[in-house]
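Protocol step 4 of 6: structure prediction from sequence.
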Amino acid sequence: MPSRRDQITMTPEEITAFLNEERTITVGSINADGTPHLTAMWFAYIDDTIRFWTFAKSQKVVNLRRDPRATVLCEAGETYEELRGVSMTGPVEVVDDHDRVIEFGFAVHERYWGNSGDPDETREAVEKIGAKRVLVVLTPQKIASWDHRKLGGTY
């Protein structure tokens, strides 16, 4: 009989579907004094990487430039029997290249607001928002997942 851990682990396809439906991750970086720094971020799961954009001078970026190790957590569920989540740990790349930052800005805009509206207004908004931002790309080296719904209400 498989262990409980084996029973609740998501398949790669389930992980992808989960990350594409959820809207917020918690990003963990390491402060200079060794304490964790946690922030909530909107994100996209693209090419098996977690990507988000943020202000270049934010504490998380300062931390990640100094120490590129990070953990992200995406979770959902209102009751214990519904809990599901994915935790990914790995190195990040902080991307300063303006074109790549803006390209991601369009991807995140489409993910959260759709493709509606005036394209010129969208471009102007993404350019304005992206002017002081960087793109952060986490390539997972370790992935943990769980979906308690697989237990059918028992534990």
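Step 5 (inspection) to follow. The helical segments are 4-8, 12-21, 59-66, 98-113, 119-130.
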